[in-house]
C-alpha cells in the first residue's frame, strides 16, 4: 500500500547530520583503539555536583510540575539579565529575556517572528546545519554568503551588504562560530549591525559559545549599549554547554519591544513554558558557579592547545580555523571529498568527525572536529588516525 503524503518541506529537508555520521561508527571494528567521537559539541566533563543536586531537588518539587510563566521563571530571567549586563557592560533587564526549551527552538521561534513564506534569511557559510534545516522546514528562503578561509571565515561587511535583497528579513551570525570556531571582531559586528539597521534587516546573533571566549578586558561587542538595539538586534543563547546540561533543554532569547510582543505568541504556541526544574537550578547556578565556569573555560583552552600541538604531527592536514570548541580542517589534496573521508575515518580508523558538506555549499574540502569533547590524552591519538588515512590514499 503506498504511503500517504507528507509535508513537501519536511521531505525536502536532509536527515539530521549527526545521527547519519554515527551510523559509520557502527562499522568500526576497534583495530585503531577506542572510538574518538568529535562530532557533536557536548561538554567533555560532567555537570557540577551541586548543580545535579539542585536539579534533583527541583525535579521532585510539586511546584515545578505545573505550568510556568510563558517567558520563563522570573528568578532565572533576572539572574541572566544581571549577568548579561555585567558581561556586555550594558543595561539589560529581565523584560528583555525569554527562556526557551533549548537554543534550536529559540532560533526556530525567532525566525518565525521575523520572516515567512517568500522571505529570506542570510546565512554565512559554513553555516550551522540546524539553522539551515529550520529555515527550510519553515518555508523561509536561505541566502548563502560565502566566507573565506583567507579571511578567517569572518563575514566581509561589504560583501554582506551586497548580498542583501528586498526579500532579506534577517542576517544570522554565530560567534564564536559553529563549525569554524571563528570569533567575529567587535568592529566587524558593529559595521554589520549598522548595515542591517540602515537596510531595515534584523541582526540575529547566536552566542551559544560566548562563555568559552578567551578572557579579555572588553566585551565581545557593544551592540547592547545602543539605545535602539531592541529594534534591530536579537540574541540567542544556550545553557547546554556552559552548565553541561544539554539534555535538560534550556536556552534564551534576548530581545525587546515589538519583537518580544510577537515572540510571546510563538512561545505559548510552541512550548508553553521551558522545563521548570532546570530553570530553578539555573537561578542558583548563574551566580554560584561563575568560578566553576571560568575553570571550564581554562580546560577548553588547554584542549585547544593540545589539539594544535597534536596536529603538528599531521602536517598534511591544515587548520583553516579554530576556536575553543571546534577546529575546521582542510583535507590534504590527495584525499577525496570530506564526506568520503569522514566515513572512512569513522568506519576504518575510529575517528568520528563531520564533513564540511554538512555545513553548506563549497565546504567539501573540510572536516569539523569538536575537540572540546575529548580529554587531552585522547587528542594525542589524532595524528596516527589521520596519517592512516593518508597512507591508504597514497598506497
UniProtKB/TrEMBL annotation:
Substrates-to-products reaction catalysed: L-aspartate + 2-oxoglutarate = oxaloacetate + L-glutamate
Family stated for the protein in its record: Belongs to the class-I pyridoxal-phosphate-dependent aminotransferase family.
Pfam families, sorted: Aminotran_1_2
Record keywords, A-Z: Aminotransferase, Pyridoxal phosphate, Transferase
Known EC number: 2.6.1.1
Record-annotated Aminotransferase class I/classII large domain positions: 37-385
Cofactor list: pyridoxal 5'-phosphate
NCBIfam families assigned to the protein according to its UniProt record, in alphabetical order: PRK07550.1
Superkingdom field: Bacteria
A GO MF label: transaminase activity
Protein name: aspartate transaminase
Amino acid at each position: 500500500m503506498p504511503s500517504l503524503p507528507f509535508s513537501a518541506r519536511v521531505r525536502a529537508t536532509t536527515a539530521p547530520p549527526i545521527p547519519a555520521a554515527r551510523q559509520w561508527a557502527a562499522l568500526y571494528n576497534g583495530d585503531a583503539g577506542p572510538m574518538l567521537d568529535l562530532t557533536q559539541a557536548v561538554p567533555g566533563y560532567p555537570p557540577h555536583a551541586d548543580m545535579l543536586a539542585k536539579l534533583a531537588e527541583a525535579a521532585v518539587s510539586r511546584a515545578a510540575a505545573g505550568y510556568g510563566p510563558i517567558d520563563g521563571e522570573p528568578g532565572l530571567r533576572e539572574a541572566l539579565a544581571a549577568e548579561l549586563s555585567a558581561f556586555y557592560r550594558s543595561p539589560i533587564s529581565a523584560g528583555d529575556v525569554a527562556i526557551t526549551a533549548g537554543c534550536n527552538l529559540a532560533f526556530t521561534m525567532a525566525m518565525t517572528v521575523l520572516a515567512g513564506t517568500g522571505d529570506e534569511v542570510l546565512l554565512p557559510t559554513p553555516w550551522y546545519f540546524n539553522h539551515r534545516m529550520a529555515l527550510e522546514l519553515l518555508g523561509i528562503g536561505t541566502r548563502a554568503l560565502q566566507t573565506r578561509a583567507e579571511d578567517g571565515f569572518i563575514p566581509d561587511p561589504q560583501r554582506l551588504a551586497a548580498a542583501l535583497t528586498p526579500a532579506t528579513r534577517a542576517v544570522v551570525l554565530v560567534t564564536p562560530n559553529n563549525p569554524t570556531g571563528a570569533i567575529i571582531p567587535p568592529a566587524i559586528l558593529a559595521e554589520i549591525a549598522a548595515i542591517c539597521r540602515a537596510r531595515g534587516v534584523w541582526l540575529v546573533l547566536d552566542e551559544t559559545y560566548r562563555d568559552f571566549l578567551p578572557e579579555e578586558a572588553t566585551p565581545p561587542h557593544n551592540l547592547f549599549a545602543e539605545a535602539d538595539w531592541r529594534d534591530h538586534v536579537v540574541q540567542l543563547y544556550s545553557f547546554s554547554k556552559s552548565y553541561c546540561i544539554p539534555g535538560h533543554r534550556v536556552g534564551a532569547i534576548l530581545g525587546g519591544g515589538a519583537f518580544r510582543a510577537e515572540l510571546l505568541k510563538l512561545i505559548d504556541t510552541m512550548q508553553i513554558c521551558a522545563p521548570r526544574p532546570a530553570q530553578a537550578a539555573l537561578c542558583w547556578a548563574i551566580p554560584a558557579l561563575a568560578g566553576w565556569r571560568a575553570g571550564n573555560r581554562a580546560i577548553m583552552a588547554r584542549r585547544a592547545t593540545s589539539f594544535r600541538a597534536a596536529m603538528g604531527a599531521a602536517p598534511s592536514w591544515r587548520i583553516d580555523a579554530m576556536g575553543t570548541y571546534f577546529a575546521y580542517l582542510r583535507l590534504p589534496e590527495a584525499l577525496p571529498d570530506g564526506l568520503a573521508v569522514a566515513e572512512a575515518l569513522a568506519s576504518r580508523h575510529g575517528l568520528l568527525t563531520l564533513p564540511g558538506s554538512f555545513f553548506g555549499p563549497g565546504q567539501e574540502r573540510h572536516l569539523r572536529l569538536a575537540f572540546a569533547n575529548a580529554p587531552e590524552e585522547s587528542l594525542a591519538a589524532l595524528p596516527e588516525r589521520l596519517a592512516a588515512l593518508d597512507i591508504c590514499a597514497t598506497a
